[in-house]
């Protein structure tokens, strides 16, 4: 009988969905306990009451415990330490794996002393911990853990996200795959585009915004106020095929959040041969050359880097080619998922 892996995470997150399907492909029976359900082929879901406020997670522990004990999995794996990780810790079923996503270790524990204490309490109940960047691994190790901590990132499906000939790309098309939420600083990117148009008035510039989110109305108003209606296209949330189609038209990808671990969007852009400009964060320094890193929230600095790339097509293409090589070396999803599959199996009795 196939070993049973129970994930705790958002069923509407592409990261959770990919993880579940990758493990099914490796012979696991996969179930999912979630507060944000969305159908997923072959994965049994147990749905928690909705979570509308952060404090609601504290009141979902009983329901999560009932679901997990009824499912009786061989391994429990919680995604996002300060939400589903808390629920998994309260379930008291082992082996227990936890994966940190970014803000759950880099931001949330530092908001209040009791939150830092709770984060440590959660992590110390895990038998194995993963994070998708060196900065996350280091952050986890600050809590004096008994469990091993591994750097395992989401990786890229290189069969789907692959480069197209640079000559097929018209003008200077720029893309952002990040959600339209405050952390991802899409307003800074729009401001930078306005500056770039002033600096390169004759250049055919187009910005593609993917991801969707709660700031859509605000961002559309900003675009209109700056006279960028013809230069910005709001795509919203697309599936992998839709994202790959947009990436194939673009030369530059921008990812400038205030806080982040290793961004899948950034890795997918690199795999497609785009030049990537990113905020100067520890996780991004692992992947992006310093000349292409900018302070988060600095539209002027971002515009300057974009101007250099837009004005030197050969340089932009060479940056993209190096990105493809780097992903082939370190960013393949299959290798990352094979690694966690081996770690899971080492935990089985």
What does this structure look like?
By secondary structure, this protein is an alpha/beta fold. The protein is 42% helix and 17% strand. It is built from 14 helices and 13 strands. It has helices spanning 14-25, 61-71, 81-91, 103-106, 113-123, 134-141, 186-199, 216-225, 240-247, 264-271, 282-285, 299-311, 313-330, 333-347, and strands spanning 4-8, 29-34, 44-47, 75-79, 96-100, 128-131, 149-151, 172-176, 205-210, 232-236, 252-255, 275-279, 293-294. Helix 2 packs across helix 3 (81-91) and helix 7 packs across helix 12. The longest helix is centred in the C-terminal third of the chain and has 18 residues, at 313-330. The radius of gyration is 21 Å and the shape is globular. The protein starts with a strand and ends with a helix. The relative contact order is 0.12.
Q: Tell how many strands the DSSP assignment holds.
A: 13
Count of separate structural domains: 2
Low-confidence stretches: none
- Strands ordered across the widest β-sheet: 3-2-1-4-5-6-7
Notable traits:
Glycosyltransferase_grp1; Glycosyl transferase family 1; 6-stranded parallel sheet; Rossmann fold; 349 residues; 7-stranded parallel sheet; Glyco_trans_4-like_N; alpha/beta; transferase; glycosyltransferase activity
Layout of SSEs?
Blueprint: E1 4-8, H1 14-25, E2 29-34, E3 44-47, H2 61-71, E4 75-79, H3 81-91, E5 96-100, H4 103-106, H5 113-123, E6 128-131, H6 134-141, E7 149-151, E8 172-176, H7 186-199, E9 205-210, H8 216-225, E10 232-236, H9 240-247, E11 252-255, H10 264-271, E12 275-279, H11 282-285, E13 293-294, H12 299-311, H13 313-330, H14 333-347
Parallel strand pairs: 1-2, 1-4, 2-3, 4-5, 5-6, 6-7, 8-9, 8-11, 9-10, 11-12, 12-13
């Amino acid at each position: 009988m196939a070993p049973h892996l129970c994930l705790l995470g958002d069923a509407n997150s592409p990261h959770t969905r990919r993880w579940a399907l990758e493990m099914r492909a490796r012979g696991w029976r996969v179930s999912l306990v979630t507060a944000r359900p969305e159908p997923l082929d072959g994965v049994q879901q147990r749905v928690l009451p909705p979570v509308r406020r952060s404090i609601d997670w504290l009141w979902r522990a009983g329901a999560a415990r009932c679901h997990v004990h009824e499912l009786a999995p061989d391994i429990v794996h919680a995604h996002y330490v300060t939400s589903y990780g808390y629920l998994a810790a309260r379930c008291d079923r082992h082996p227990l794996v936890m994966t940190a996503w970014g803000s759950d270790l880099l931001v949330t524990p530092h908001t209040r002393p009791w939150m830092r204490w709770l984060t440590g309490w959660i992590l110390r109940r895990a038998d194995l911990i993963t994070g998708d960047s060196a900065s996350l691994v280091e952050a986890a190790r600050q809590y004096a853990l008994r469990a091993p901590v591994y750097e395992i990132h989401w990786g890229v499906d290189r069969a789907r996200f692959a480069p197209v000939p640079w000559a097929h790309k018209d003008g200077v098309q720029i893309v952002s795959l990040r959600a339209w939420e405050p952390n991802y600083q899409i307003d800074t990117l729009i401001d930078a585009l306005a500056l770039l148009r002033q600096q390169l008035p004759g250049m055919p510039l187009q910005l593609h915004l993917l991801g969707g989110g709660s700031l859509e109305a605000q961002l559309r108003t900003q675009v209109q106020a700056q006279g960028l209606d013809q230069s910005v296209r709001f795509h919203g949330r697309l599936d992998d095929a839709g994202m790959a189609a947009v990436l194939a038209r673009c030369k530059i990808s921008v990812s400038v959040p205030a806080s982040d671990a290793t961004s899948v969007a950034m890795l997918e852009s690199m795999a497609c041969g785009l030049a990537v400009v990113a905020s100067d964060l520890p996780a991004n320094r692992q992947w992006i050359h310093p000349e292409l890193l900018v302070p988060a929230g600095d539209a002027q600095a971002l515009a300057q880097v974009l101007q250099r790339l837009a004005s030197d097509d050969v340089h932009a293409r060479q940056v993209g080619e190096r990105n493809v090589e780097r992903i082939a070396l370190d960013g393949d999803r299959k290798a990352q998922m094979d690694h966690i599959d081996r770690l899971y199996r080492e935990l089985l009795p």
